[in-house]
Design a protein that fits this description.
This protein is of the alpha+beta class and about 110 residues long. About 30% of the residues lie in helices and about 30% in strands. It contains three helices and four strands; from the N terminus they run H-E-E-H-H-E-E. The protein has helices spanning about 5-15, 50-55, 65-80; strands at about 25-35, 35-45, 85-90, 95-100. A hairpin with a 5-residue loop joins strand 3 and strand 4 (about 95-100). It starts with a helix and ends in an 8-residue tail after the last strand.
Length: about 110
């Protein structure tokens, strides 16, 4: 969906890298896995507290406005077949993982 990555990257800057005095790095990876598109946005920022890392259904309110809007858009477009998870990144920081279903008739190359 258009403008889906922008709020996710903005969250990485605002909540991950901005509080980290020395700055950091954001990596965006996209891959196809089975019949899904996996989008990962990972930063090496300050990370999230435990409450923010607790998995929540897409329909439940997120802690931040940007994540809430992304979840609402995913739900309106894909129903329960799309997911958005926040996880601790292996190098510190946060990793957001979006899993989108391949749409019928669409080809992901």
């Amino acid at each position: 969906p258009p403008l889906l990555l922008q709020p996710m990257v903005e969250n990485s800057v605002r909540h991950g890298l901005e509080p980290k005095i020395e700055g950091g790095e954001i990596t965006v990876r996209v891959r196809r896995e089975d019949r899904h598109l996996i989008v990962e946005i990972e930063d090496d920022g300050v990370g999230l507290d435990e409450a923010a890392l607790t998995p929540r259904p897409l329909v439940e309110n997120a802690s931040g406005f940007g994540l809430h809007q992304v979840r609402r858009r995913l739900t309106s477009i894909y129903g329960k077949t799309a997911t958005l998870d926040l996880l601790p990144a292996p190098n510190g920081g946060t990793r957001a993982v979006l899993v989108l279903p391949e749409e019928s008739g669409a080809r992901i190359k």
